[in-house]
């Protein structure tokens, strides 16, 4: 089968288009024929080698974290799915590889594709939808009437998180550039800060939850918009010792995470905030709940561009440029 692989880690390295053997299916897995795959900033960071401490993939390996497609084969212990089913997923870490014609996915990480979406629309969702769900529903337990600040409202996670937070009944603030202000308001944002004109920390205050997806400087500023007892959930670091413990990472990695997050954890404790780092996990059961929201019309996918399979490197470069509004998708079949 044709696939795009990381042959060597590096910021300037291009993925290589190669022929690789069809994946070997485990008993608890489903083989999915890939129709479309989403492109995420995580793909860029994995290619660059930024996650080698946490996810030490041995090169060469197939990249890609989102899939929508059709089941072609099932493992002998699989019960929920059968050949011909239309499905979507964010495969588990260490079993990624959706920039390919086929990918194996654990049954527990797979869900039926929303009936009202195309394959390209469905492929845009799993990673960002699960990230938003696990941050706002699982960790923050966001309630009706609470205030949440979601950074980068026009990005992949931002476009979904805004809609989810509004569905949960929260008041939503976000940041974006001048040209996207009315666009993110249409997604449901109540307060939009144009970062080219003003600083969010001088506009926002007394927020219950902040979803941080930006750099360390933005993380520091975010502490100033929370109310006492508020929650700062970061999906862009720094990783915490609790995260390292949860993933059962080596002792030396635990010490690195302790050092990296020490300043933020200390400041959060002094100001009476809860700080946590979220590294999204695959979950078919959560995706099924998200499917229900999509099919009811409560949330809709936001797709910026669809690239052909041969242009996978161009799709990755476009995501890396930071210009995408919503998600970038690759049409494989």
Folded structure, characterized:
- With 333 residues, this protein is an alpha/beta fold.
- It has two domains: 2-125 and 301-331, Medium-chain alcohol dehydrogenases, catalytic domain (Quinone Oxidoreductase, Chain A, domain 1, Alpha-Beta Complex); 128-277, 3-Layer(aba) Sandwich (Rossmann fold), CATH 3.40.50.
- 32% of the residues lie in helices and 26% in strands.
- It has eleven helices and 16 strands.
- It has helices at 41-48, 119-123, 126-139, 156-167, 181-187, 200-203, 216-222, 241-246, 251-270, 284-296, 312-321, and strands at 2-6, 16-19, 29-39, 61-62, 67-74, 86-89, 102-106, 110-112, 147-150, 171-176, 191-194, 207-212, 226-234, 274-277, 303-308, 327-331.
- The strands form three sheets. Strands 3, 5, 6, 7, 8, 15 and 16 form a seven-stranded mixed sheet that branches.
């Amino acid at each position: 089968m044709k696939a795009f692989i990381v042959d060597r880690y590096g910021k300037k390295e291009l993925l290589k288009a190669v022929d690789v053997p069809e994946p070997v299916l485990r008993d608890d897995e489903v083989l999915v024929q890939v129709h479309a795959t989403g492109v995420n900033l995580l793909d860029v960071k994995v290619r660059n080698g930024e996650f080698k401490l946490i996810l030490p993939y041995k090169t060469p390996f197939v990249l890609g974290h989102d899939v929508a497609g059709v089941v072609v084969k099932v493992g002998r212990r699989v019960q929920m799915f059968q050949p011909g089913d239309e499905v979507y997923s964010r495969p588990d870490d260490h079993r990624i590889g959706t920039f390919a014609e086929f990918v194996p996915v654990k049954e527990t990480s797979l869900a039926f594709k929303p009936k009202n979406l195309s394959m390209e629309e469905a492929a845009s969702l799993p990673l960002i939808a699960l990230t938003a769900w696990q941050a706002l529903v699982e960790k923050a337990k966001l309630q009706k009437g609470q205030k949440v600040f979601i950074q980068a409202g026009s990005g992949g996670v931002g476009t979904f998180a805004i809609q989810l937070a509004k569905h949960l009944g929260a008041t939503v603030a976000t940041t974006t550039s001048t040209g996207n202000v009315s666009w993110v308001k249409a997604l449901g944002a109540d307060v939009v800060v144009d970062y080219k004109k003003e600083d969010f920390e001088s506009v926002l205050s007394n927020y219950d939850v902040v979803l941080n997806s930006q750099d360390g400087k933005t993380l520091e500023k975010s502490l100033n918009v929370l109310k006492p007892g508020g929650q700062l959930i970061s999906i862009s670091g720094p990783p915490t010792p609790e995260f390292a413990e949860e993933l059962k990472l080596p002792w030396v990695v635990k010490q690195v995470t302790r050092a990296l997050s020490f300043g933020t954890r200390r400041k959060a404790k002094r100001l009476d905030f809860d700080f946590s780092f979220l590294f999204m996990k695959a979950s078919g059961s959560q995706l099924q709940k998200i499917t229900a929201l999509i099919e009811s019309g409560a949330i809709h996918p936001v797709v910026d561009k669809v690239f052909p399979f041969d242009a996978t490197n161009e799709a990755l470069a476009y995501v890396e440029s930071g210009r995408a509004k919503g998600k970038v998708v690759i049409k494989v079949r």
